[in-house]
Amino acid sequence: MTAPPARPSGEGVGVRMGQDATSALVADTGAELEPLGREASRLIRVLWSPSTWTLTLLVVAVLIFTVLQPTAFLSWFNLKNIAINASPILIMAVGETFVLSASGLDLSVGSVLVLTSVLAVRGFEFAGSTGWAAVILGFVIAIGCGLLCGCINGVLIAKYRIPPLVVTLGMSFAAQGIGYVITGGNDLKDVPDELVSSIGYNSILAIPDIVWISFAVALIGSFVYYLTRFGRYTVVLGSNPEAAVRAGIRVDRHIIKIYAICGVTAGLAGFLSLSQYSGTQIGSHAQDFLYVILAVILGGTSFYGGVGSMLGTCIAVFVPWVLNFGFVVEGMDAFWQPVVLGVIFVIVVYLDAWRRRAREGVRH
Question: 37 burial class (0-12, 13-18, 19+ CB within 10 angstroms)?
Fold first, then answer.
């Protein structure tokens, strides 16, 4: 009898990922890079990366609106509002980057944000709606609710093999509906002054606290995504699930963890939104999942999994808000913004599909 084939080690997985990444880069550029030399190859990789294109798009948009309205658009007040509005989306996009990289999908982040904010306010009320004890209780409830929603999504997808689209769309309806049932359709305003005056209005170096928090979440997410085994396994799972199983990755557990992270980021965004608006906004987050998914895909994470960029996500999350505030400053009809974003979304998904076919062509 012959011995069974050895199971690939973690180092083997890293090598495979490196090989896949190299093949993808060759496919994207349409030519072999090595003959050009190491420095030229590195330059082409940087210039061709989706993060570079996203940054270019963002800079071009800023330049256009700056030329059209130089004093109004680049005012500190305007830039600060762009950063504040983008912060909750950035936090949720960090979790969504892990999900999409693993070939998953979470459409429930906006509704989970609403539900967690509603339950957090109920926690505030239970604790008297004042004092740091109430703030801490609301925070624990928001994070716990987001974690629970994420785990439910993960279990249904991993254990019961229900498609992510179906599970997360169902969670979206359920979370939104529960939020309306609890509130009766009315926004809740019993938010402790300590939360609003600290995170809501406080600034460090003239930058609002909520922006600092979103940057901290992005840094932590980037560290986990790029520098830990969990991040590498996430990309392997999205690239080749069978290889992930052969490599010894506990796929079901990993999927549950990924969706749990996405739920926690939605819960955190829901809690922070209370400090931003001094209450719930149950009717204002229906399209948040679109902004989140657009930012993740525009930043370079493949809709089909296996390729991701946390850096690109952090850049792309500002594009919709630059367009939004630019249209407002220019006096354009705000309804043109979703039209422009829709066109950008279709183009980005098409290019993603084209790059995917190119990578598969190189591998085969």
Answer: exposed
**Residues 299 and 51 sit within 8 Å (Cβ to Cβ):** yes
Name 207's bridge partners. 204
Cα–Cα distance, 255 to 342 (Å, whole number): 29
User: Which residue(s) pair with 208 in the sheet?
Assistant: 203
Separation of alpha carbons 348 and 266, rounded Å: 24
In the block, tokens 């594009």 appear at: 319
Q: What is the dihedral of CA 312, 313, 317, 319, to 10 degrees?
A: 30
Residue 221: CB atoms within 10 Å: 23
Helix axes 132-158, 109-126, angle to 10 degrees: 150
Please state the separation of Cα 174 from the chain's center in Å.
21
> Tokens 């998953």 correspond to what residue?
104
Report pLDDT digits (tens) over 8-34: 444 333 434 444 433 433 333 344 444
**Residue whose pair of structure tokens reads 């309205």 in the numeric block:** 69
Q: For 173-230, how does the pLDDT look when each residue is reduced to its tens digit (9 = 90+)? A: 999 999 999 999 999 999 999 999 999 889 999 999 999 999 999 999 999 999 999 9
Degrees, nearest 5: CA angle 187-190-195: 115
Alpha-carbon distance of 184 to 178, in angstroms, equals 10
User: Among residues 332, 362, 345, which one has the least CA distance to residue 65?
Assistant: 332
The token pair at 15 is 């090598």
| Cα–Cα distance measured from residue 32 to residue 23, given in angstroms and rounded to the nearest whole number | 9
Of the CATH numbers 1.10.3470, 1.10.10, 1.20.140, 3.30.70, which one belongs to the domain with range 50-352?
A: 1.10.3470
Cα–Cα distance, 28 to 17 (Å, whole number): 16
Q: Residue 102 to residues 14, 27, 249, 288: CA-CA distances in angstroms?
A: 16, 21, 13, 21
Give yes or no for a contact between 149 and 115, defined as CB atoms under 8 angstroms apart.
yes
Query: Alpha carbon 127 to chain centroid distance?
Result: 32
With b meaning 16 or more CB within 10 Å and e meaning fewer, what string describes 159-185?
eeeeebeebbbbbbebbbebbbebbee
Contact call for residues 340 and 323 (beta carbons, < 8 A): yes
Number of neighbours of residue 55 by Cβ within 10 angstroms: 18
